[in-house]
Acyl-CoA reductase (Lacinutrix gracilariae), 352 residues
Amino acid sequence: MNLDQIINAFAKLGLFLSQFTTDDFQKKENIEHNDLFFDGFKHQIKLAQEHNGWFTPKNLQFTFNSWSKSLTDTNLKSWLNSYAINQVKPKKVAIIMAGNIPLVGFHDFLSVLISGHDVLVKQSSNDKHLLPFLAKYLEYVAPDFKGKIEFTQEKLQNFDAVIATGSDNTARYFEYYFKDKPSIIRKNRNSVAILTGNETEEELTALSEDIFRYYGLGCRNVSKLFVPKGYDFDAFFKAMYAWNPIINENKYANNYDYNKAVYLMSEFAMLENGFLMIKEDTSFASPIATVFYEYYNTKEELTTYLNTHSNNIQCIVSNGFTENEIPFGKTQRPELSDYADGEDTISFLLKI
């Protein structure tokens, strides 16, 4: 397959996904193979929700909407414009995927196939229903994909390179196990927001999306705030209020109650508003329903600190603080060129 054919196939997949971005799925005309796949994907969505309680309709719709907007002919060509894709000799690339948010490994899957390689996918048990079905759709719109996409739950064998995502503990295992293969090994990372006290109401409201989307389970979710000495959290809590219905969702509420009880029994100081707790803590990773915060004295001091801990940070949300910052409300709306851990996946795939 040449690059134009692959781009065309993924653009058709984007059109297919655009039907599943609202509560009432809208079957559209002129979507290839829709009679065969539309009802089938509705069933896979139902299975995904039943299997993983964090995969709510709203979060699944958000995922499908994001990918339907990214997977356009224009976006894909713009992303790949600076790469020499057609010069690749196909290899088999294994991907070990996480399952914390829906289709979290799709960018790696896309990158491997669009760079001309074959893909061997080992999914997380938490997210196993959606991607195989979408892969089958790709094989129908572009039959040359058949034989290039493989899923397995067994031990990985017969591959040339690997992209693996896991915890810090599993990363050590991956690094040892795959030491003889070209690899990208991803570890735990979290995202932070830097506040100055001068944020507008709109910026803080947008920040709530960075905190609560996917219940804060993604590495691009903000789990830590850096605030100046004497920061008044009233405006912050006011801006979070639109998300208060989240406390009515059982899995979130159970985590909120549990973590609140732990903090109270341990006599930790914290602030809360009935559905979100904030606690002063030096850690980057906060539990569900909790955001940690830490005070800073000067911009220079904080910049040095963040540079020192860059391996722990996925995104920095701020306004005018740093060169590579993410605007408020945009952490879960990455561009195709926003690579996890800042490591260019396509460049890696073109060198193996």
